[in-house]
Amino acid sequence: MSVSVPPMPEFGLQGRNALITGGANGIGLACAQWFAKHGCRVAFADRDETGAQAAARAIGGVAVALDVRQPDAVENAVATIEAQLGNIHVLVNCAGVLQNPLPPGKLSIREWDLVTNVDLKGTYLMCAAVGQRMAQRGEGSIVNIGSVAGMRSGPLHAYGPAKAAVIALTECLAAEWGRHGVRVNTVSPGFTQTPSVAKSMQLGILDKDILVQATALGRLINVEEIAAAVGFLASPLASAITGVNLPVDAGYLVATPWQAYGGLRPAGDF
């Protein structure tokens, strides 16, 4: 018996240009692949120039080396990409670094600065450079990558506050540029199967079983699931949505309060 496959949803992104920071791997690469699959020309901006170029060759995009902490480098990269592709219609800010769960007495200010400079300052610089251009043209969509760590307390005293600030920044810029036709939203992943999370598991910093038990769906998230949420918010299907923070967390946020009552009920317990 043959099984009919439903058609791919029409997102209205054909022929648009999407710039992905941190696109060489993980969530950024999944986002780039999603946009390419739905008809976009994709530009990669990443400190890992070799990885970015390899990814660009694989999906037919372009790549530039970029440290998002450097204002001049950001401006030059954006200008270079627009010279190669044309106007940037979609910006996805995936560039970011994680941190080890350390108490303040053991978290060096050097690591704190690195995390906040990449995750917050870098996001702001990219938004400012690309968003201003979008506003002047009267159209555009920006999706910032936040985190559930920015929505709840945790032992990540640099990463959590930086992601909370990204969520707040998104709201500010959504209001700033809304009348200019620019939408700005956040996707906040839960624990996602990325190379960085896999490395933390290998080092014993994270425990997969504990993470799985902490979600309502009883599993981790795939990078493709984050990319799908990003793509939706960036697309015309979300044309009336701006300033929102969309958690994609397999139910982590709703499940964690149940720990005070002994945890979630097991499957089959009605």
The residue fraction in helices comes out at 40-55%
Mean pLDDT: 94
**How far is the first residue's CA from the last residue's CA?**
36 Å
Structural class: alpha/beta
Strand elements, count: 7
What's the SSE pattern?
EHEHEHEHEHEHHHEH
Beta-strand residue fraction: 5-15%
Rg for CA atoms:
19 Å
Description:
By secondary structure, the protein is an alpha/beta fold. The protein has one domain: NAD(P)-binding Rossmann-like Domain (Rossmann fold). 43% of the residues lie in helices and 14% in strands. The chain has nine helices and seven strands, in the order βαβαβαβαβαβαααβα. It has a seven-stranded parallel β-sheet, sandwiched between helices. Strand 5, helix 5 and strand 6 form a beta-alpha-beta unit.
Which descriptors apply to this entry?
7-stranded parallel beta sheet; 270 residues; alpha/beta; 7 strands; Rossmann fold; 9 helices
Q: How is the topology of this model organized?
A:
Elements: E1 17-21, H1 26-37, E2 41-46, H2 49-59, E3 62-65, H3 71-85, E4 90-93, H4 109-137, E5 140-145, H5 159-177, E6 182-189, H6 195-202, H7 208-213, H8 223-234, E7 245-248, H9 252-255
Parallel strand pairs: 1-2, 1-4, 2-3, 4-5, 5-6, 6-7
Helix pairs in contact: 1-8, 3-4, 4-5
Briefly say what this structure is.
The chain has 9 helices and 7 strands; from the N terminus they run E-H-E-H-E-H-E-H-E-H-E-H-H-H-E-H.
